[in-house]
Amino acid sequence: MPTFRYKAYNASGATVSGSIEADSERQALAQLKGKGLLPREAHEEGATDTAATSFSFQRGVSAADLSLFTRRLATLVASSVPLYEAMGSLHEQEENGALKRVLARVSARIAEGASLSRAFAAEPRVFGESYVSMVAAGEASGALDAVLDRLADFLEEQEQVRGRVTSALAYPILMVLVGGGVMLFLLTAVIPKIVVIFEDSKAALPLITIALIKLSHFLRGWWWLPAGMAIASVPLYRKAMLRDNLRLKRDELLLKLPLAGGMLQRLILSRFARVLGLLLASGVPIIRALEITSEVLVNRVYRGFLREVMEEVAQGGSLSGSLRKSPLFPPLLVHLAGVGEKSGALEAMLLKAGIAYEREFNSRLTRLMGLMEPLLVLAMGVAVGIVVMAVLLPIFEMNQLIK
User: Which of 216, 213, 194 is nearest to 205 (CA)?
Assistant: First the structure.
């Protein structure tokens, strides 16, 4: 039987750790909860976490499909349709092959007497921990339809953010690919035919022309070297990212990047505030909500600090007081969290903060893309200009000698 190392909170809020034997991670977590402990993490000894953390609540099914399913389910639940009938109807209407198979299994579990949250929990590749926890809280509070509506809204908004980022990056990526292809064609096909004239003349060539000729010779004779390095870099990078210390350094570096680092921080803060506010509004306890939120965030710098926040809040500290200790969380978010704690509307304040940071991210993204487009055009013009200059300078010098 596998052994799992765990960290959890006891009844007094203190952190405890140890090992436990179980057939699976889910069984290990269930045993810990049976002992009165609140699990924080549990990993099998000797196992390596190779799964990449997703940017969404779900894995394997697109956010658009999942949000549409959630919206339909919320409508049926609000109309007092029994869960089994609702799931059967959604299964019949679903056209997506992967989601259709998942819904068939969920319907079968509900027919066997399982709750909706437990039926979803058995499909972790589609329904993430945050999704399942909110559904469970909705079932316990009797407001399942409202929770499902919030979930659908959140998934749709996250899909819109992803779409904006994809659209904004499409033009720069296309420009880089086209520009790189044009330069590669010039250096490997056009320049070699032109420089033959200069090499045969035995005349002294400008430094820029010599550099261009050497670069052309290198790309024609040793093209496999940069191509091989580019191909090999992908598996090497993936292997390196299996190490937690390297992933932490990568995330630290991303936050320090000029322009992009600030945008990434706003995106993380928006995700943190909106997910935490959504979980609290759905009735999830704050410690559990913080634990889920830390797993949703992909940046390990924020994850590490949120674990410290969880420990302080579990021991009786305030959320705003804990967040104030780190520069990762700006004063606006800390202030709104403090106001929410004093007024008893923490979830509402967090959702407002999430909306504010998402708007700031969108405005920064728009400004950056507006600045990047002319810069890319300018860079392509400079690159082509250098090639043209390297070709024309020797021609001008030869004309001067002839005169």
Answer: 213
